[in-house]
Design a protein that fits this description.
CATH class of one domain: Alpha Beta
Order of helices and strands: EEEHHHEHEHHH
Helix content: 40-55%
Strand content: 15-25%
CATH topology of one domain: Nucleotidyltransferase, domain 5
Number of strands: 5
Number of helices: 7
CATH architecture of one domain: 2-Layer Sandwich
Shape: globular
């Protein structure tokens, strides 16, 4: 299947579920070619949200990375600028979570960056849900459920989850 635009599949790890109150601690994304749906580029940014050692330690444990790696990570403003510099605004956004889209929009707002992406976003979870119903999967189509169905390895990190979402999308679209 050929698409009109490249797809930017992204995954956000956060400190909690509320985009207004909680913070992004990782932004991971893979850019898929519009013709082949193969990965063209990627970005993985851990985000430091505090200067307090206790908070950094808690978030580093949540992400499965070292304290020093997170301590040296950029704040959200720099991570968003890197995201824009890496991918621009041309790709169509795709995500497995509408909450991730809300967090991303909010991060752009906090960073005083315009959110110039297409208003249409590919909701991979909804597509997965329809696919699961069609083939008779009785479970909610989580990344783990679909990884098991397609015999794909499960994902632990945000970048792994973005790549797994891209693999599942390819399997659903290409059959």
């Amino acid at each position: 299947m050929k698409l009109i635009k490249d797809l930017l599949v992204f995954h956000i790890e956060t400190t909690g579920p509320d985009p207004e109150r909680d913070h992004i601690i990782q932004i991971a994304a893979v850019l898929l070619d519009k013709d082949s749906l193969l990965e063209k580029n990627f970005q993985n940014s851990f985000v430091k949200v505090s200067f307090l050692d206790g908070t950094i330690q808690k978030h580093s444990e949540q992400l499965g990375i070292s304290f020093d790696e997170l301590r040296q990570s950029p704040k959200i403003t720099e991570a968003i600028k890197d995201f824009i510099n890496t991918f621009g605004f041309e790709p169509l956004l795709a995500t497995n979570s509408t909450a991730s889209l809300l967090f991303l929009r909010n991060a752009f707002k906090k960073s005083l960056q315009p959110f110039k992406y297409d208003k249409h976003v590919l909701d991979v979870w909804s597509l997965s849900y329809i696919y699961a119903l069609h083939i008779g999967i009785k479970k909610i189509p989580s990344l783990t459920t679909l990884a098991d169905h397609f015999n794909l390895p499960t994902a632990k990190t945000g970048l792994d989850k973005a790549r797994l979402t891209a693999q599942i999308l390819r399997k659903i679209i290409n059959g």
